[in-house]
């Protein structure tokens, strides 16, 4: 069976943690927990070991692989801080320009009316 390349690249992978070693290392699971059944979450951890994103679901709701792939792409696209990705963003969709960081820039005479929601085509 050929694997779908969206779910694995040379730099990212989706792992299961049946031993709970990763969950315990990141403080997600109590040391005294017998299992991880209380945790139905997905954590996006960068190569430096920093948690960059989390999704958390009730036990009765399934997780979406498509949303995991979308979130990973959005995290990678916005990692350098030059753009923001709106909800539902997909690669190739317009991105958001980071808003002004000072009141003067946001409300000054030259400030556009939509300073908080400016889009631009993605590269």
TrEMBL record:
Gene3D superfamilies: Glutaredoxin (3.40.30.10). It is an enzyme of class 1 (oxidoreductase). Keywords: Antioxidant, Oxidoreductase, Peroxidase, Redox-active center. The keyword Protein transport does not apply. Homodimer; disulfide-linked, upon oxidation. 5 homodimers assemble to form a ring-like decamer. It comes from the Bacteria. It catalyses: a hydroperoxide + NADH + H(+) = an alcohol + NAD(+) + H2O. InterPro entries: Peroxiredoxin, Peroxiredoxin_C, Thioredoxin-like_sf. It holds the Pfam family 1-cysPrx_C. This is Alkyl hydroperoxide reductase C. The keyword Kinase does not apply. Residues 74-107 form the Peroxiredoxin C-terminal domain. SUPFAM superfamilies: Thioredoxin-like.
